[in-house]
Amino acid sequence: MELVAIGCSTGGLKALQILLRGLAPCPRTAFVVVIHTASADADSLRRLLARDTPMPVQEAQERAPVLPGVLYVAPPGYHLLIGADHYFYLNVDPKVCFVRPSIDVLFESAADAYRHRMAGVILTGANDDGARGLRCVRQAGGIALVQDPEEAEASGMPEAALSLAGADHCLGLADIASELNRMCLS
């Protein structure tokens, strides 16, 4: 597994912190997160997440390579894309599902770039951002993991993803971490 793309919204910071605490170091896998947050302070988010993982946590930068063993966070106010060259690209195209950055935009571009060598993960959230992107991940041969809506603080995003894309695994946070460890370390 070369890339794990994670999307979350309402309740996402807490869910992401729990997930990260369960992940083993994955030196061959890059992790990229889009989180819908009202905060415009990406550095604060980066510092918060860094407490919960041994991986270096960085804000994704325009035209920077996607490197394994790093957790990247989408900068607020920009859509984050991954090109076929495995570099990050940012844009300010119109909002998707009323948000920018959009999980769909990241997942769709990542699916094109990584195909079967990636996993998409949808966690808690109140809207349907990520559902179309997760469908693209599955259509490209990637693995789709969705947080169990019963466990999610906001079930809308996981339910939308399951309805539109389905999932290879619908699990609680601890089990998502275990499955990612299995995929990334095998």
Short characterization:
This protein has 186 residues and is an alpha/beta fold.
What does this molecule look like?
The protein is of the alpha/beta class and about 190 residues long. The chain is globular, with a radius of gyration of 14 Å. The chain has a single domain, classed as Methylesterase CheB, C-terminal domain (Rossmann fold). The strands form two sheets. A seven-stranded parallel sheet has the order 3-4-2-1-7-8-9, sandwiched between helices. It has a two-stranded antiparallel ribbon with strand order 5-6.
How are the SSEs placed, and which strands pair?
Layout: E1 3-8, H1 12-22, E2 30-35, H2 42-50, E3 57-59, E4 71-73, E5 79-82, E6 88-91, H3 103-114, E7 118-122, H4 131-139, E8 143-147, H5 156-164, E9 169-171, H6 173-185
Parallel strand pairs: 1-2, 1-7, 2-4, 3-4, 7-8, 8-9
Antiparallel strand pairs: 5-6
Helix pairs in contact: 1-6, 3-4, 4-5
Features:
186 residues, single chain, 34% helix, two-stranded antiparallel ribbon, Rossmann fold, 7-stranded parallel beta sheet, alpha/beta
Report strand order across the widest sheet: 3-4-2-1-7-8-9
User: Which stretches are low in confidence, meaning pLDDT under 50 for 5 or more residues running?
Assistant: none
Strand content: 15-25%
List the secondary-structure elements in sequence, H or E: EHEHEEEEHEHEHEH
- In whole angstroms, the N-to-C terminal distance is 8 Å
Structural shape: globular
The secondary structure category is: alpha/beta
CATH topology: Rossmann fold
- CATH H-level name... which superfamily? Methylesterase CheB, C-terminal domain
Please write the CATH class name.
Answer: Alpha Beta
- The number of helical elements comes to 6
Q: Number of DSSP strands?
A: 9
For the CA atoms, what is the radius of gyration? 14 Å
The portion of residues assigned to helices is 25-40%
Number of structurally distinct domains: 1
Give the second-level CATH assignment, the architecture: 3-Layer(aba) Sandwich
Mean pLDDT: 96
